Amino acid sequence: MTIETEEPALTVDELAARAGITVRTVRFYGTKGLLPPPVIGPRRVGHYGPAHLARLGLIEELQRQGMTLAAIERYLRRLPPDLTAHDLAVHRAVVASWAPEAAETVGRVELHRRAGRELTDAEVARLAAMDVLTPDGASYRVDAGLLRLGVELLDVPLSQEVVLAAREVLLEHSRAAAQELSRLLRDAVAERAAEDVRSLSAHMHPLVVQALLTTFQRSLRQELRGWLTE
Question: Which pTM was predicted?
Answer without folding.
Answer: 0.59
